[in-house]
Amino acid sequence: MKFHYPNGKKYIPAKRETVRTKQEKKWSYSNRGMTLEEDINETNEYYLTNGIASIHKKPTPVQIVQVDYPKRSAAVIKEAYFKQASTTDYNGIYKGRYIDFEAKETQNLTSFPLKNFHDHQIKHMETILHHDGICFVLLRFSASEEIFLLEAKHLLMFWKRMIDGGRKSISKEEIENHGHSIPLGYNPRIDYINKIDYLYYLE
Amino acid sequence: MKFHYPNGKKYIPAKRETVRTKQEKKWSYSNRGMTLEEDINETNEYYLTNGIASIHKKPTPVQIVQVDYPKRSAAVIKEAYFKQASTTDYNGIYKGRYIDFEAKETQNLTSFPLKNFHDHQIKHMETILHHDGICFVLLRFSASEEIFLLEAKHLLMFWKRMIDGGRKSISKEEIENHGHSIPLGYNPRIDYINKIDYLYYLE
């Protein structure tokens, strides 16, 4: 049975950390069975351990209602509900600059539906740009395994077009024209910092 | 019954938002019944709504084990556990700069115990300084209701003294000498951005 977040996103439980053998670590573009979130988390871990950047995923916001305190063992949350996040999922620091982004994927082949984003996230991105932060989205077309970095200023433009009565999605051609394709790599998997260097002259 | 986080901090459930009357909003230094977290959240809301800064508390990290999906109502988390956070609690952006801090309080009168902090938080603060972020702690002496901003570089110094066999706390005199007292205000309640302006010449 599928559960959906308040934001319509499927809930994927975080994997427990496991020690991998070299065999298991073998990398291929196809059928890796990795989610976009896992790829980004591994990328951020690479940036962190190599002293490149400190960027983290925020925990899933949960409203805790009831907690049990069994003797001699850890507290157990017995009733809680998913809450809508008021910001994007990822933020942190790179070369002194504030970095903020959201990651989304679609099964669509030719366009990216804007319903993947929500008013409060759009508002948050506007705020970050107002404060001179580096803000963008990572968009993944799952069928073709293509990943694009699209700066928030462009996403906001397409969002405004929708609000003004225009199309409810960004065509893939528009994403190719305004965004920046990120090839899937081994380590780091999704090297978005490389694009940030290029876009913000941070090299 | 008291529950403690993995970090030894008491768990305080987030209050539901309530509409307050003017009477209730009346402000006094004593017996306000506000927690440090609530004061900081209201301060951050003030900064956000006034376009000053965008700084948020990260959600409590929770490992979700079991979720129920009742028909026609919201998903209920039935089993989950508190996880140790890998970063500090608050981060965001101010005038393009990355801001990162942790807030702690003590009942002690004459010193601030370093056991309020944990290895991973200290390591995170070192990382943030390495990347040229603005990093500090807000320390509250609950009995006297005094609040100090202590820059991470000083906290790290006192932490190192402990690791090297020195005292396991920071004396209040040291905090007064190296830190910056923040008077409790009405709106914003804990105006730490004012100190940041002063310390980092951002005015």
UniProtKB/TrEMBL annotation, chains A, B:
<dbReference type="GO" id="GO:0006310">
    <property type="term" value="P:DNA recombination"/>
</dbReference>
<keyword id="KW-0233">DNA recombination</keyword>
<keyword id="KW-0540">Nuclease</keyword>
<dbReference type="GO" id="GO:0006281">
    <property type="term" value="P:DNA repair"/>
</dbReference>
<feature type="binding site">
    <location>
        <position position="89"/>
    </location>
    <ligand>
        <name>Mg(2+)</name>
    </ligand>
</feature>
<keyword id="KW-0234">DNA repair</keyword>
<dbReference type="GO" id="GO:0000287">
    <property type="term" value="F:magnesium ion binding"/>
</dbReference>
<feature type="binding site">
    <location>
        <position position="87"/>
    </location>
    <ligand>
        <name>Mg(2+)</name>
    </ligand>
</feature>
<keyword id="KW-0460">Magnesium</keyword>
<feature type="binding site">
    <location>
        <position position="102"/>
    </location>
    <ligand>
        <name>Mg(2+)</name>
    </ligand>
</feature>
<protein>
    <recommendedName>
        <fullName>Holliday junction resolvase RecU</fullName>
        <ecNumber>3.1.21.10</ecNumber>
    </recommendedName>
</protein>
<dbReference type="GO" id="GO:0003676">
    <property type="term" value="F:nucleic acid binding"/>
</dbReference>
<comment type="function">
    <text>Endonuclease that resolves Holliday junction intermediates in genetic recombination. Cleaves mobile four-strand junctions by introducing symmetrical nicks in paired strands. Promotes annealing of linear ssDNA with homologous dsDNA. Required for DNA repair, homologous recombination and chromosome segregation.</text>
</comment>
<dbReference type="GO" id="GO:0005737">
    <property type="term" value="C:cytoplasm"/>
</dbReference>
<dbReference type="GO" id="GO:0008821">
    <property type="term" value="F:crossover junction DNA endonuclease activity"/>
</dbReference>
<dbReference type="InterPro" id="IPR011335">
    <property type="entry name" value="Restrct_endonuc-II-like"/>
</dbReference>
<dbReference type="GO" id="GO:0007059">
    <property type="term" value="P:chromosome segregation"/>
</dbReference>
<dbReference type="InterPro" id="IPR004612">
    <property type="entry name" value="Resolv_RecU"/>
</dbReference>
<feature type="site" description="Transition state stabilizer">
    <location>
        <position position="104"/>
    </location>
</feature>
<keyword id="KW-0479">Metal-binding</keyword>
<keyword id="KW-0378">Hydrolase</keyword>
<comment type="similarity">
    <text>Belongs to the RecU family.</text>
</comment>
<dbReference type="Pfam" id="PF03838">
    <property type="entry name" value="RecU"/>
</dbReference>
<keyword id="KW-0255">Endonuclease</keyword>
<keyword id="KW-0227">DNA damage</keyword>
<feature type="binding site">
    <location>
        <position position="121"/>
    </location>
    <ligand>
        <name>Mg(2+)</name>
    </ligand>
</feature>
<keyword id="KW-0963">Cytoplasm</keyword>
<dbReference type="InterPro" id="IPR011856">
    <property type="entry name" value="tRNA_endonuc-like_dom_sf"/>
</dbReference>
